[in-house]
């Protein structure tokens, strides 16, 4: 039986990644100290590792495919094939940003003000390239962690990944500039891409993962509507295409079903009831395949 070797990110993205794979139909189990999770697809072998390591292991063929951030692909300069983008992060369905941050009370106003200064970061190469593009000569130091606490004593500024900026504010830092925006990417080894079976296997996986992410933002609605009220109800309903309308046993009634943005549901349900809809059901979705 052919096998696809898949690298999954350990650490901050692990829990969210496992949840998305589950919604996509892939159940993953991992022991407390195991780095080799079991997936309920016998054709896939999983390895857990730091997202920073995945690009190079994919490039070298140790892994056929891996899930890692665009930031780490750029940082390692790995020669891999990007086959898909998945927009999510540890705290939600948003990208992360690599930003330059400085103490709130510092005099730094522009990137050029960092000339000759010390900058701490885990993403040394990305930071150096950005500074070079802006003609700034600064000392970029590798940070082993707790980067936010280094200014002003150990560094003048930091280059750090952030989702919401709350951690930076909590450490009395402000954002000076955004270096890049990053999302998780599904990447493949270039030899593996040329294998028809592996390529198709990954394409199917990507379709299901994207469907799971799309469903995270949507809910389904079902309701019964008297035909006299149908036009008023339909006018209120957004949909991927158009609502599905089915006849009920009672001749003057129909069942209406549609998919909407979850954030719309709270207000829309009350408006639908006012328009004459009855028996309204809201339900969650696992996947939406456009």
Summarize the structure.
The chain has helices at residues 14-24, 54-59, 70-76, 124-133, 166-170, 190-193, 196-216, 230-236, 262-274, and strands spanning 4-10, 28-29, 38-39, 44-50, 65-69, 81-85, 96-103, 118-121, 139-142, 157-162, 173-182, 184-188, 218-226, 244-247, 253-261, 277-284. It has 290 residues and is of the alpha/beta class.
Helix and strand topology:
Elements (H helix, E strand, L loop, with lengths): L3 E7 L3 H11 L3 E2 L8 E2 L4 E7 L3 H6 L5 E5 H7 L4 E5 L10 E8 L14 E4 L2 H10 L5 E4 L14 E6 L3 H5 L2 E10 L1 E5 L1 H4 L2 H21 L1 E9 L3 H7 L7 E4 L5 E9 H13 L2 E8 L6
Parallel strand pairs: 1-4, 1-5, 8-9, 8-10
Antiparallel strand pairs: 2-3, 5-12, 6-12, 7-10, 7-11, 13-15, 13-16, 14-15
Helix pairs in contact: 1-7
